[in-house]
Amino acid sequence: MRKLGIVALGAAAALTLAGCATSGGTGASEDGAEIRVWLVGTDTPDEAREYLVDTFEKENPGSTLVIEEQAWDGLVDRLTTSLSGSDSPDVVEVGNTQAAAFTSAGAFLDLTDEYENLGGDDLLPGFVEAGSYDGKFYAAPLYSGSRLVFYKKDALAAAGLTVPTTLDEYISNAQALAAANPGKSGIWWPGQDWYNALPYIWENGGEIAVADGEEWDAQLSSEESLAGLAQVQEVMTTASSAPKDGNETSPEVGFCDGTSLQLSAPSWVKWSILAPADAEAPGCPDQEENLGVYALPGMDGGAAQVFAGGSNIGISAKSAHPELALSALEIILSDEFQTIYGENGLVPAKLSLADTLGTDEVAKAITAAAGNAKLTPASPNWADVEASGILTDLFVNIAQGGDIKALAEAADEEIEAILNS
Amino acid sequence: MTTVDNGLDPAPSAFEGERMTAPQPKPAARRIRRIRGGFTPYSLLTPAIIVLALITGWPLIQLIVTSFQEFGRAQVFGAPPEWVWFENYANVLTDPVFYAVLIRTIVFSAGCVIVTMFLGTLIALMMMRLPKGFRILLSVGMLLAWAMPALTATVVWGWMFDTAYGVVNYILVNWFGMEEYFQHSWLIDPLSFFLVAGIIIVWGAIPFVAFTLYAGLTQVPDEVLEAAQLDGAGGFKRFRLIIFPYLKPIFLIVTILQIIWDLRVFTQIFALQDIGGIRALTNTLGVYIYQTSIAGGDFGQGGAIAVITAILLMSISIYYVRQVTKEEEL
User: Is this complex's ipTM strictly greater than 0.90?
Assistant: First the structure.
């Protein structure tokens, strides 16, 4: 009797505790599985999202597909924790320079057998390489987007300038614009935006890091890179009134309120600028006529070597429904879905769809820029360099007028420590 | 039951005819308690202990295990980790960056705790004197500040201090004519970064301190204060000699809780670093652990830093628990 009492007490206490924890956490039902797709940022147009959900649910009756939008900030951290957990999303987008961190760790399902099915040699070769590791294919290309220079046509005309044809002219244009419009940015360039600094380094013949056998040799303090960094500092300090420690999200704000006369940003920023004035992230559609765009010019004319931004997409190794996830991936790499990317100014994942970009100014600039695009060092540890904030810190310091040589040498040391760890 | 145990023999006293006796020895009391309680308290405690062991104990053991291993992103996804024992600890303890972060964290938390306690005490004292209506207004305001999630608060404060569009710069330039604050970056200089971070943290922590101390202040007997006032003790003297000693246990608990909370601060610093500032110069322990392990993918080393931090916090907690139990015994 006494013992029973103890058991009852224990059970009662346990039930009380359990009562606090049973709400929430409803699992997917047996035959109606739910596929979770992580898309990053606002790059993917709504039209494409709707197409993906509708097509998937038509092809897989009873199952549903949910798109969960993630932010680019802190993506590597979030993928590390979520892909390894039991509650992993099924299909995930990852930045092309970050892909190696996950393909090398075994976070993605091996898609080597599906390579032909997903597009084969028609897929963007640079991105296939970014999504492969050790001869196996893990993450397919999603889209590519080059950085373009957006400018206000009236401001350029008022200063008596024309679209620049060389990098030097681009810099002097920006300085002239800033001088003619005190308090405004000839090129809007917040200090944390290191992607935009890469063309200066590359055009001067410098590199971030080069492979030297097994080891990586960071090159930011080389003669050539330093020349590029000096140009970066010149632009940041004389032509930009953007916050010296700000980040590059929401470039449309300054463009729309008139304080940014030029800015270098991914091609889809055009749609942020032209978003309706009453949208959640409002733009300024009245500027459509005034919005000009060109590819960043190189040192000796032509397009500069810009950073080949873009995304890969893979299936989590922990996906509970890999077949359904593959079905979603097939839709994402279908011509129909990829065409929507092309029509919205993003380079589709397939070479054969390049002409969906159209023939307007943006399309021409994209084609010019994409032809000369370049990648960050191909090391599985590169994502850690990005996540550590070494590069954002470096350019924030440069934007403040810091000593370039000392800063670059310190950054080189830290980058080597991570790449060679 | 033939002999009656009266404990010690009665000792003689200075008063005639009086005998002093020691209290009954303790074991008797303990026996009674055990009979009364039986296993009930333990069976009631068991589920909570199991849950605690699962959600606090298990991760802690995992953390300690990880800190002795070479544990990178590949290991997160299933590769077998390699045991390196104290190598991670050696790396951390010989890294000057770690000491810089540690000292920065300690100095910053100390500043936050002092300001929080000072302002919290002042507000609690003010609440004693406010008429009811204003007191309720103030309480509601503080409750709202306390209920606001740290991330939301940081984003809102970040906007106020924004370089290009922030209200602080706007007011300084347009109302006070301080032109040097046009496009002034509040976060780029580490000192001013921590000023902003400190404002956000103190702002969020004051309500707890103020409410707790206010609750304590209502328990200070009025007669004692009145007597002191009649004896000519001024406001500060009354606080120092009467109120403070009465509330000492509360001050102690609140201060130590603040120290622990501020030493492991994460959200405010992490979110603020994204808005602006230089990460390498503004990392505190919490953010540094996150950056080393989760962003940098070196969970072993991050684990070692976390264990060192945990030991640091635990030594403070043990002091706190001991002080509290001492006060209870009195």
Answer: no
